[in-house]
Amino acid sequence: MAVRVSREWLAASLVLVLGACSGKSGQRDGDVEGQGGETAGATGRGGSSTTSPGKTSPGKVVPPMGGYTMVGTAGEAPAGARAGFGGSFSAGAPAEMPGAGGSADDAPGIVVSAPGDLTVHESYGTIQVQLRLTAAPQADVKVELASADPTHAVVFPLSLTFTPENWQKPQAAIVAGVRDAIADDGNTVTIETLPAVSTDPSYAGMDAGDVEVFVIDETNGGIVVGPSSGSTSESGGTAIFNIVLTSQPTATVTIPLSSNDLTEGTVANAVVFEPSEWSKPHPVTVTGVDDNLSDGAQGYDIITGAAVSDDSHYDGVDAADVHLSNVDNE
Fold first, then answer.
1. Strands 119-121 and 89-90
2. How many CB atoms lie within 10 A of CB 182?
3. Which of 4, 5, 13, 92 is surrounded by the most beta carbons within 10 Å?
């Protein structure tokens, strides 16, 4: 079951308590969900825009992650269940603030909590996910953690162990984003808490709530045009410049090319990048044209048109044009 938490750590941390006899409360039939209770209003994360090198760059919108959702136990709300944060149900013990110590008389349970809107960048920042027990165990309780997508986020340590001596002390795991070479709109990654391992039958197999983390993309889709090597000439001399992508596209990227003066220089119609060769610079050769006029060196431009691609981060990106000079031979 996935749990999302509000932005306010102290005002309304999400708590999921599983009773001793409960399994993972992630079954869909009968679940009750609530958004943005009165204790902490739901806040959305606004869209953001990144700029790719060149003339235009489609903005990227980060999906809203504000507010929180707490899902109750499967089936009908149990007798004595009470509304928790966001109007959801919490079974067993009432929802408490993270870090609140239980007592030996409380019902066994595992509390999962996390701060803020649960977002982390690919290249910096971390999130702390906190676990604690609600009652003293009769033996060690080990809870393993795992990232459902380690290519975008990792969690460490991979397990937390509570003993009969330290069970009242909350323990934390750290979630960090992973940088990749693909420009995207960010990725939601589930940090899984696996069923507890213990010889205490009250905790053995107890499966606490998972946490969804949003990893903000730090990779920009862009097209870079390098400087030309020399000038063209009416004698057929050529000039060369390179084009390269700044990130790996998810589809073929075609960049149209044209000369604004075919009497001075010509160029191929397009440069094509396949995803597998995105990091390899593509050279573009421009050839001078003889106009049979004694007109001195003439300037002209090679126009890079808007890219065409099924990858939305590259489609429509328009890189810089290249200015050249064609040397006269008359």
1. unpaired
2. 18
3. 5
- Report, as ranges of residue numbers, the positions in the chain whose pLDDT lies below 70: 1-105, 330
Question: How confident is the model at residue 159, as a pLDDT?
Answer: 96
Give residue-wise pLDDT tens across range 165-203.
999 999 999 999 998 899 988 999 999 999 999 999 999
Domain of 250, CATH number, reads: 2.60.40.2030
Final residue in a domain of this structure, among 192, 218, 244 = 218
Tokens of 72: 């109750």
Neighbouring CB atoms inside 10 A of 46's CB total 9
Rounded Cα distance, 114 and 55, in Å? 41
In this prediction, residue 142 carries a pLDDT of: 97
Q: Looking at the structure, tell me whether residues 315 and 276 fall in a common domain.
A: yes
Q: pLDDT of 67-92, one tens digit each?
A: 222 222 222 223 322 222 222 222 22
Our count of domains for the chain comes to 2
Structural domain containing residue 255: 223-327
Tell me the two tokens of residue 252: 């073929």
Looking at the fold, whether 138 and 276 belong to one and the same domain comes out as: no
> 85: helix, coil or strand?
helix
Please provide the DSSP assignment of 92-114 as one string: SSPP--TT----TTSPP-EEEE-
Please report the sign of the dihedral spanned by the C-alpha atoms of residue 308, residue 310, residue 312, residue 314: negative
What pLDDT, on the 0 to 100 scale, is given for residue 105?
57
Closest C-alpha to 97, from 211, 163, 6, 207:
6
Measured CA to CA in angstroms, residue 1 lies from 31, 275, 284, 310, 324 at distances of 11, 35, 53, 34, 60
